[in-house]
Amino acid sequence: MKQVVAIVKPYLVEKVLEALKHAPIESCAVREVKGYGRQKNYLDEYHGSEYSLAFLPKVEISLWVDDLREEEVVRTIVEIARTGRMGDGKIFVMPGLGGDLWEKKAGPAGGNQPQAG
Predict the structure, then answer these.
(1) Which residue segments constitute the domains of the chain, with CATH numbers given?
(2) What is the model's pTM?
(3) Which of 23, 41, 3 is nearest to 77 (CA)?
(4) Residue pLDDT, tens place only, 14-72
(5) What are phi and psi of 68, to 5 degrees?
(6) Could you tell me if 90 and 33 are in contact, meaning their C-beta atoms sit under 8 angstroms apart?
(7) CA distances from 92 to 48, 62, 117 (A)
(8) Residue 5 in contact with residue 94, Cβ under 8 Å?
(9) What span, in angstroms and rounded, lies between the C-alpha atoms of 45 and 106?
(10) What's the half-sphere exposure (Cβ side, CA atoms, 13 Å) at 6?
(11) Among residues 5, 10, 3, 114, which one has the least CA distance to residue 58?
């Protein structure tokens, strides 16, 4: 299991989620975030003077996918979210924590209930 975290522009979130609707995803979480990347350096050089640091609005999409389907999911996100302009965002792929996937309500995914003992 891998965790794929995509930071995208807010106006592209619906398109990305729509494209991922049929992708092999185990779980998904979406959060509004703020931050900056290279834009900070670009703006500093462009204006040539000091400025107050302003964080830009972005959206973080966290997905948990099977190891074998990671590239397919990343490729889908890149196809939809890439505009070719600065500030497109980032995609991070991290190894899952390992072990079993647990659901709060049902227990372990797959229906195995923990044994008392």
Answers:
(1) 2-98 (3.30.70.120)
(2) 0.73
(3) 23
(4) 999 999 998 889 889 999 998 877 665 445 444 555 555 667 889 999 999 999 999 99
(5) -75, -15
(6) no
(7) 32, 9, 40
(8) yes
(9) 54
(10) 27
(11) 10
